[in-house]
Design goal:
Chain A is mainly alpha-helical. Chain A has four helices and three strands. In chain A, strands 1-2 form a two-stranded antiparallel ribbon. In chain A, strand 1 and strand 2 form a beta hairpin. Chain B is α/β, with parallel strands linked by helices. Chain B has two domains: 239 residues, FAD/NAD(P)-binding domain, CATH 3.50.50; 148 residues, 2-Layer Sandwich (D-Amino Acid Oxidase, Chain A, domain 2), CATH 3.30.9.10. Helix content of chain B is 29%, strand content 24%. Chain B contains eleven helices and 19 strands. Chain B is globular and about 60 Å long. Chain B starts with 14 loop residues before the first strand and ends in a 10-residue tail after the last helix. In chain B, 54% of the residues are buried. Classes of the chains: A mainly alpha, B alpha/beta. At the A-B interface, helix 3 and strand 3 of A face helix 7, helix 9 and strand 17 of B.
Chain lengths: 106, 389
């Protein structure tokens, strides 16, 4: 789905062109809507929107999301529970975990 | 953490459901549809935070027992019309790409022949395939060492978070009150009758309590002094980056204990059972799982080895000794069980909500689930399900 807003829309609503999760294409507007709908924890928003579930594993969006929740709830960011950090630390090729996989000289 | 319903619990309710997974929310919705009165759902964390949100997201009808088949057939029908029935704007991401089950031993093939006979009798559109026929359905399949396969095109996938969310929202529109971050701590009884539930946010009085606590079912049952043979067992899963659609069906093997499916979103979800896993509440992830799954899945579906693993997690199966759920009443009046799904609660949630609401309202049951009562363990009438990963 093409979400690109036209010029007029950009001027009217900057939230629409502010990306929170780059991997899953989630805008600030969408995050604000979810909080408005009552999804007020990072874990719930992650599960409903996929914010933070992409290949960057939430490295970009996790803090931004926590900041938005904090703002909406009138809390300090440090008080907002983060989503759980899950392994692997960095994405790895599935085949790379297999014994006898090709080495990088081949 | 703020609850979904601000303020405290009401003093009285007509029914209290313990557990905000797909089973609890489905029961809440179905009870509300029958106009049961004031329905309260208690969830100690957020919705789908437990086993529901950690499951493999598959839905299938290819089971080895008549009861599981009947329950699954009914549920698939419900998934098919769920977006409309529950008026869910996101859509539950239902995909009917089928399930392709692989046999790697003679014994497994014999079991498949029997399963297919049973499934066909019950109306499941399943077929028995040679390895080369299986390869036509899944071109990336490696058929080495394979004996045969079975395929049912109407099995598939649905998004567990969305299904739970859809039931919750539809229930709330009918008046259900969902209290998240609210933990049931104690069940009040009086001469073996349920009287209420004490939570960390206050006490609610009620004559009906439904245990839909998944892996915590034994803990909740213990609150009314019932010792029920449920036990939690960790099962791990992982997901890859999203790519263009290349794999239609869920590919699964019981003897090699793995399953792998591409979701409509494009990522591949896969998991593996570990026969050495001990009962317990641990749901941490292990590197051994990653290696074992990588070996099993890349052997069966070699190109999947090129994808990056983005995330690993685990959840609990709420096991029973015969891998069938326990549904219905208990010796404690007003205390009902909807648990023990043994790893397939997500796909059976629609029919479970319907049946439990029928049981509580004392209506005629739409499916005869006589064999799924608690009494079967005392009677020694276990129905063992042979087809579980």
């Amino acid at each position: 789905m093409d979400k690109r807003p036209d010029k007029k829309e950009k001027e009217m609503n900057p939230d629409k062109i502010t990306m929170i999760c780059r991997c899953e294409d989630i805008t600030l507007e969408e995050i604000k809507e979810l909080i408005q709908e009552g999804y007020t924890t990072a874990e719930e928003i992650k599960r409903i929107s996929r914010c933070g579930m992409g290949p960057c594993q939430g490295r970009t969006c996790r803090e931004l999301l926590l900041g938005e929740i904090a703002k909406a709830l009138g809390e300090k960011v440090g008080k907002v529970a983060s989503t759980k950090y899950r392994p692997p630390t960095k994405p790895i090729r599935l085949g790379g975990a297999v014994k006898g996989d090709v080495n990088d000289l081949e | 953490m703020p609850s979904r319903v601000p303020g405290g619990l009401p003093k009285n309710a007509d029914a209290v459901i313990i557990g905000g997974g797909v089973i609890g929310t489905s029961i809440a919705y179905h009870l509300a549809k029958k106009d049961f009165g004031r329905i309260i759902l208690l969830e100690k964390s957020y919705l789908a935070s437990g086993s529901t949100g950690r499951c493999g997201a598959g839905v299938r009808q290819q089971w080895g027992t008549k009861l599981n088949c009947l329950l699954a057939i009914d549920s698939i029908k419900a998934f098919q019309r769920m977006d409309e029935e529950l008026d869910y704007k996101r859509g539950i991401e239902f995909k009917q790409g089928g399930y392709l089950l692989l046999a790697y031993t003679q014994r497994e093939m014999d079991q498949f022949i029997e399963n297919v006979r049973l499934q066909k009798e019950l109306g499941v559109p399943v077929s028995f395939l040679t390895p080369s026929e299986a390869k036509q359905i899944v071109p990336i399949l490696n058929t080495d060492e394979m004996y045969c396969a079975t395929f049912c095109p109407t099995d598939g996938h649905a998004n567990p978070f969305y299904v739970t969310d859809a039931y919750a929202a539809a229930g709330e529109r009918l008046g259900v009150e969902i209290h998240t971050f609210t933990k049931a701590c104690e069940i009040l009884t009086e001469s073996e009758k349920v009287k209420g539930v004490k939570t960390n946010r206050g006490t609610v009085f009620t004559d009906v309590v439904i245990n839909a606590a998944g892996p915590y079912s034994a803990v909740v049952s213990k609150m009314v002094d019932l010792d029920i043979p449920f036990y939690p067992e960790r099962h791990q899963a992982l997901v890859t980056e999203a790519v263009e659609p290349v794999l239609g069906p869920m590919v699964m093997s019981f003897s090699r204990r793995f399953y792998c499916q591409q979701t409509p979103h494009g990522s591949f979800i896969m998991g593996m059972g570990d026969p050495k896993e001990k009962p317990g509440f641990c749901i941490s992830s292990t590197w051994q799982f990653l290696i074992e799954t990588a070996e099993a899945v890349t052997k069966a579906l070699p190109p999947v080895g090129e994808l990056s693993v983005v995330r690993q997690w685990a959840g609990s199966y709420d096991m029973t000794p015969d891998a069938h759920p326990i549904l219905g009443s208990t010796p404690c009046e007003g205390f009902y069980l909807a648990c023990g799904f043994s790893g397939h609660g997500f796909m059976l949630a629609p029919v479970t909500g319907k049946l439990i609401s029928e049981i509580i309202c004392d209506e005629e049951l739409s499916i005869d689930i006589h064999g799924l009562d608690l009494g079967r363990f005392e009677r020694g009438e276990l129905v063992i399900e042979p087809s579980v990963v």
